[in-house]
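Two entries, shown back to back:
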Amino acid sequence: MRTARASSGVKTVIVLRSSSPSREKTMPNQKRSIKIGRMKFWFARGTEITLREQLVTQTILGILCGDLVPGQRLPSTREIARSFRLHPNTVSAGYRQLERENWLELRHGSGVYVRDTRSVLSIS
């Protein structure tokens, strides 16, 4: 695993997957993933970067590179929490942070959707 710090001070975690089947058996956390469009969420435990920060960073990178498109529905808090054995409050806190930063839109009773950031970026 590699940790990089961008010039803006944001830490990015890059988890390298081995193509070796025996290596995957020893790393059970890497087997769990949720695929959304062309993007997969992955979480590395036992690092200095919190799971919430990993969720936020992966989501932002997915939006910026076009893997997550405006209007696309993201997995529910419960779905991510169960799939990765995370506490639902961790996922919810990440989603709330992304909403405050105008990356996502939380629609009560409907789900979590990628916000169209082009209009927000052009204003600022």
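entry 2 starts here
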Amino acid sequence: MSGFLPVDSLDSPRFCGLATFMRLPEAQPGARLDAAILGLPSDSGSPFRTGARFGPQAVRAMSVMLRPINPYRGHVNVFKRLAVADAGDASAVPGYLEESLERLEASLDALTSNGVVPISLGGDHSVSLPALRAVARRHGPLSLVHFDAHSDTWRSYFGGKKYSAGTPFRRGAEEGIIDPASSIQLGMRGSLFRWREVGDIGWHRASRFALGRGRKRCSHIWRFAAVLIWRRSLAAGRFMRDRGLAGPAWVRWAETRRYQSKVWWHRSWR
């Protein structure tokens, strides 16, 4: 047993105590952890609607409803096997994106340099870049599994700026911290600026690709799941909007195969 167990909600009501992720204990200096929850509360890279800086707080507030045992995966209680705690939030400089990215990276690096796996809560999509940098510094180039409505691989945004919520994965590929040949982006949809941006590789081929390609080339896989993957009825407060999927049935595609959706990956990564 890890000793880092959530508060028992059958003993203490969920509306009591500090709102840590899943009611996990707060991380203490010197604690030996396998993984840590870290908020990345920055939305200075958002090209449209701000407010994602409050994302970590909102996720924690709702996460108190989660129970620790998964009945669909052998009744595993991951917190009895791994030491996981909530490390709070990284700092940011509101309105100054590059300075914010530096601060976020420093907080992430404090975890990865001690062998702790960061489980980060954003934040707009620009916070992915400091997370990739910190993890790749320890493990080398990463395979990216990216669930989103948009590829976030623009060359630049507004005034030729290199850093925004729409550019982190291009920057990661340019910096050599993402291995494009072993990475995939799932759920891409909606309207485009240019017709050559994406290509449809098909549902079944994409599923085999997602499950097998990264394992063949890289020993470490970094997953990024954006709230934009959900349809608006399930995530109304997101900073960008696009038409189409995805609801719970889409996420269960590997088991049910009921929802036949297009799966896109970026042409520049072929």
